[in-house]
Specification:
169 residues; alpha/beta; Rossmann fold
């Protein structure tokens, strides 16, 4: 989060009129969140929301121009999946799990490069007209049932049986 905040701080100082919203389950004693609340940009261009309901989270995804998700290590990357299912453009760190999830869909950034995210966001803002940022092409996401059916078919083929009809189970 520090990296993202400092990136946006650079963009604001360069005159970009953009907003940054952090949403998540933050502890009231989180030192970084307390530092954000002391920022001159807080409640102007910088907003922090904690413990969002599903409806509030959906509102943020639906009204955002892009998801910026710069993490050094992740177990999965649920915000990327949530953004993709809503057709939200994604700018994220170039780590293996994000490549697996969003290759061909997201713009990847080397976060070891101090200016990488700044340049990626500026390019996105310069090359993507506002109406295009707001238009959405959701990526269909397969359900757990879809994956279970596929796994069942593969297992049955491996043991030499005929694929069954998943509706019979």
């Amino acid at each position: 989060m520090n990296y993202i905040y400092h990136t946006f701080e650079t963009l604001w100082r360069r005159g970009q009129k953009i907003k940054l919203i952090f949403g998540g389950p933050f502890s009231p004693k989180d030192r970084f969140i307390e530092e954000l609340k002391c920022s001159i940009f807080y409640q102007k261009s910088l907003f922090v929301f904690s413990n969002l309901s599903d409806a509030e989270l959906d509102f943020l995804y639906s009204n955002a121009s892009a998801l910026v998700f710069a993490s050094k290590a992740e177990g999965f990357g649920l915000p990327i999946v949530e953004a993709m299912t809503r057709g939200l453009p994604i700018i994220c760190s170039d780590i293996p799990i994000f490549r697996e999830l969003a290759d061909g869909y997201a713009q990847f950034v080397d976060i070891a490069d101090d200016n990488g995210l700044v340049e990626a966001i500026e390019t996105f803002l310069d090359k993507t007209p506002l109406d295009q940022r707001l238009s959405r092409s959701p990526r269909p996401w397969r359900s757990w049932d879809d994956y279970a059916d596929e796994l069942l078919t593969i297992c049955e083929e491996l043991v030499g049986g005929e694929p069954s009809n998943p509706d019979k189970h």
